[in-house]
Design goal:
The complex is a heterodimer of chains A (about 110) and B (about 110). With about 110 residues, chain A is mainly β. In chain A, about 40% of the residues are buried. Chain A contains no helices and 11 strands. Chain B has no helices and 9 strands. The radius of gyration of chain B is 14 Å and the shape is globular. Classes of the chains: A mainly beta (about 110), B mainly beta (about 110). At the A-B interface, strand 4, strand 5, strand 9 and strand 10 of A face loops of B.
């Protein structure tokens, strides 16, 4: 079975640009979460989507948005990029039965 | 803020048991203790979880004190591949639809030959 897949794995953007990160959850999982991990810190919760609806939002500015598609894949969008947005962005697929989180390998964003 | 406190770093000799402590003095009665680890540049990996009884799986053992204010993750025979950052997290049971993990800074475990 395929695990959680994220794309792209690495990308470089400049300040003011926008970025779209993509995530495909484990087959059968209807919920995904997004986390931001700045170097040297633990992951910080950004969003959770369940059955295509937003179910939770962390303390992030409105520049951050996300959506979930009918096939349960998800996109994270960040507008007007700042240097401080440089981080590893992690997507987690959540088991419907147990609530366990299975993380992807992440998308590493560098903002110059 | 994270509801857990962990040592910043620990060392362990290969083949020996690694005992990673975690304090969660404000844990609620329905909150579980979860452990994840993150090997460099990879996504966090689930290790084990428990409510109040000790738990064991193929990766590790989890010992939770009777008052549930602290716990210890035990890797019985640490290998070099266990070098990682270990996160202790408390969370409410999965209620369907909402599941947020609050990560602290974790414990950086270094296993050396």
């Amino acid at each position: 079975d395929a695990g959680v897949t994220q794309s792209p794995t690495h990308l470089i953007k400049t300040r003011g640009q926008h970025v779209t990160l993509r995530c495909s959850p484990i087959s059968g999982h209807k919920s995904v979460s997004w986390y931001q991990q700045v170097l040297g810190q633990g992951p910080q919760f950004i969003f959770q989507y369940y059955e295509k609806e937003e179910r939770g939002r962390g303390n992030f500015p409105d520049r951050f948005s996300a959506r979930q598609f009918p096939n349960y894949s998800s996109e994270l969008n960040v507008n007007a990029l700042l240097l401080g947005d440089s981080a590893l962005y992690l997507c987690a697929s959540i088991s419907d039965n147990t609530g366990e989180l299975f993380f992807g390998e992440g998308s590493r964003l560098t903002v110059l | 803020d994270a509801k857990t406190t962990q040592p910043t770093s620990m060392d362990c000799a290969e083949g020996r048991a690694a005992n990673l402590p975690c304090n969660h003095s404000t844990i609620s009665g329905n909150e579980y203790v979860y452990w994840y680890r993150q090997i460099h540049s990879q996504g966090p990996q689930y290790i084990i979880h428990g409510l109040k009884n000790n738990e064991t799986n193929e990766m590790a053992s989890l010992i939770i004190t009777e008052d549930r204010k602290s716990s210890t993750l035990i890797l019985p025979h640490a290998t070099l591949r266990d070098t990682a950052v270990y996160y202790c997290i408390v969370r409410v049971p999965w209620a369907g639809g909402y599941n947020k993990l609050i990560f602290g800074a974790g414990t950086r475990l270094a296993v050396h030959p």
